[in-house]
Amino acid sequence: MIPFLAAISGSGLLSILVQLIVAGLIFWLLLWLLSFVGLPEPFMKVAKVILAVVAVIFVINLLLSLSGSSFIQW
Prior knowledge:
Order of helices and strands: HHH
Strand content: under 5%
Mean pLDDT: 83
Distance between the termini: 28 Å
Number of helices: 3
Number of strands: 0
Structural class: mainly alpha
Radius of gyration: 16 Å
Helix content: over 70%
């Protein structure tokens, strides 16, 4: 575990932290927008699930980029 921690640089962690904060704000604003628009109930649940899946995939991809092998290339 120690060699893995030594391989991650401080600037890389700071960059990922900033990306997580910005992405969290974007996903929170999208969730707020969905509740503000007031879609009918089945569509609201589907939209929330899609938003949650996209957020989880983004976070997993961001964390995988620490190891150098992300599954989505930006």
